[in-house]
Amino acid sequence: MTTRSTAPQATVYGYPRQGPNRELKKAVESYWAGRVDADALHATTAGLRRDTWRRLTEAGVTEVPTGDFSLYDHMLDATVAVGAVPPRHRAAVDADPLAGYFAMARGTQDVAPLEMTKWFDTNYHYLVPELGPETVFVANPAKAVTELREAVVLGHRARPVLVGPFTYLLLAKPAPGVAADFRPITLLDRLLPVYAELLAELWTAGADWVQLDEPALVQDRTPAELGAAARVYRELGALTERPKLLVASYFDRAGEALKVLARSPVEGVGLDFTGPAAANLAELAAVGGLPGKRLIAGVVDGRNVWINDLEQSLSTLATLLGLADRVDVAPSCSLLHVPLDADRERDLDPQISRWLAFAEQKTAEITLLARGLREGTGTIAADLAANRADLASRAGSAVTRDPEVRARVAATTTGDGRRPQPYAERSVAQRARLRLPLLPTTTIGSFPQTTELRTARADLRAGRLDQAGYRERMESEVREVIAYQEKAGLDVLVHGEPERNDMVQYFAEQLTGYLATRHGWVQSYGTRYVRPPVLAGDISRPAPMTVDWFRYAQELTDRPVKGMLTGPVTMLAWSFVRDDQPLGDTARQVALALRDEVTDLEAAGAAVIQVDEPALRETLPLRTADRPAYLDWATEAFRLSTSGVRADTQIHTHMCYAEFGAIMTAIDELDADVISLEAARSHMEVAHELAEAGYPREVGPGVYDIHSPRVPSTAEAAALLRAGLAAIPAERLWVNPDCGLKTRGWPETRASLDSLVAAARLVRTELTG
Hints:
Layout: E1 10-11, H1 23-32, H2 38-59, E2 61-66, H3 74-81, H4 87-95, H5 97-106, E3 116-118, E4 125-127, E5 130-131, H6 142-153, E6 158-163, H7 165-171, E7 173-174, H8 188-204, E8 209-213, H9 223-237, E9 244-248, H10 257-263, E10 268-272, H11 280-286, E11 290-300, H12 310-320, E12 324-331, H13 350-353, H14 359-375, H15 381-395, H16 403-411, H17 423-434, H18 451-462, H19 467-488, H20 505-508, E13 512-515, E14 522-525, E15 528-530, E16 534-540, H21 547-554, E17 562-566, H22 568-573, H23 583-603, E18 608-612, H24 627-642, E19 650-655, H25 664-669, E20 674-677, H26 685-692, E21 698-701, H27 714-725, H28 746-768
Parallel strand pairs: 1-2, 2-6, 5-7, 6-8, 8-9, 9-10, 10-11, 11-12, 17-18, 18-19, 19-20, 20-21
Antiparallel strand pairs: 3-4, 13-16, 14-15
């Protein structure tokens, strides 16, 4: 098959799923609650897909994606499509496919869900396939075919999207009970015929092209892995009854994998040309381009919210025109990672609004660039002039630069980022001050964010509740949370964070340099959506942010209450960061603002201060060569935040839902006294990784999976705790959930924490007699 040369067109890899008002979240949660049935849920989701395709077509996109929509997660959809349902979920899936699908995602009281972790270096979470030597793949093309036919009936030219087989196997893990050294890639012989069947079904249903997403190709790959990738596309390319194949790779440069794709018999390749992936331009030229192939050129950043430099993108595209048979214009990756529409942000200064591009504005940018390539830049001259003016406005704005902040950062020294006392000395002082039992119990920070709390915040914003009334409502919640924790028997308490809308947004709204949105929702996982703030300028802290809430909570109890902060790396990772200076410079600004807060918390009496860094691992560069520089500034920023306290003040940090093996040295470099980590779904894997790395400080591997509604029994929590003790000595082991409890309801929270405390007491008795 060959691709005929055509004029450049605009396309996208994928699009936000939630709808303008998060209709998907509301529909799915209504289904879970039994307020709507499956037919009503499917009707809502079909309407969301229809509206998305219409908007894309009206904007000038000539080929819309199908299959990128998901009720929960696209990797879970891939697991269903290839029939890799874990044995413990098969009965549920066979009895009711929709209920079984959600059981894999969330678990039930009797069956644990699939493990969840971060999608490459984004804040999107995917569900990890569980595979083993006994796995049998069976093609299930129903979703892909149904959504393709929906689009075709509506008159759209459509391109189905599937997770590629190489990425699917590379992201999978050995199933429970399977040897840890089992490599899912060895199942390639079984999986490729299933993909061949899926492609044949889509071809029969009318697909001209199919997009196979292979972001795993942008990571460092061994020669054997590259050989496997070459085999995948050699064999799929040799099929006769199939659509044309577009292999999409994004998030970084393709490196050696680019040779594999260039030599393969696939008809199209999608590459990222933004950020570190800009190196793809030179690498593509070095391999001789893609003669005879279609190139999807990702020249608009699909992961950040700043307007594109249109003239720079046109220059890149002009070079690419000579390197492929056909060049189409696209964002760098799926637009799943950005909010829907910047025009809805009516509260922002109009000038600042012109600096922002969400999914709809990015779609307009790619259609404009495609038009400029087709018809000549003269036809878009006015748009280019307006773009230059907006870029200049941002670069010269007082919003972006604060000389005092920059001077403070410049004045910091190496000593500012190190605690003067070694951990061995600190631990003695902290134990003497805190007097905690063996296996101390705590939670990660947040307690359930009830409807009443969300209503109170909405009433405050709408003026239906004044500040005094709001404060009274929040104080009442703090009293209840403290009283509950004392009754439950927890050792180190939290105030529950009822006043916080989000662990990043709450702080961003109190720091200079950040902008908050009203409608900038982005999917984190399932029905969990966040509104990442926009980091537009230099950062400082005008006033204390958490001290009053800590002081109020600590006055209610004799037990230690943790001061709770979000760390500098997470403040960047879960924001849309500025792209006009190095990330390390921005991290140091945030770190100094947090250092002031840590110092004030200690002065207010906090003996335990937790600075969460769940994003440390997710922000790790995908290429190994780029990691040391990142880890240097990331760990420095954390230490800069926390190193100004006394020896007897205990610094905690928290991380969750990521693969930690690659950053064990960096975890040590944080020099936190206690680290809590997700461990329940991964069966205490991280505790053994820490032990193997010789981690010397205290650890709280989670024994309660908070991303599932199921309540663990005391026996289950105790078994996990004993597994943790096999790696971490009892005098250095804490007992806690995997993560904060804000997404859980109170009944399951109480029952689960009762199990956690009972498990700690049981195992404590086993250890001490």
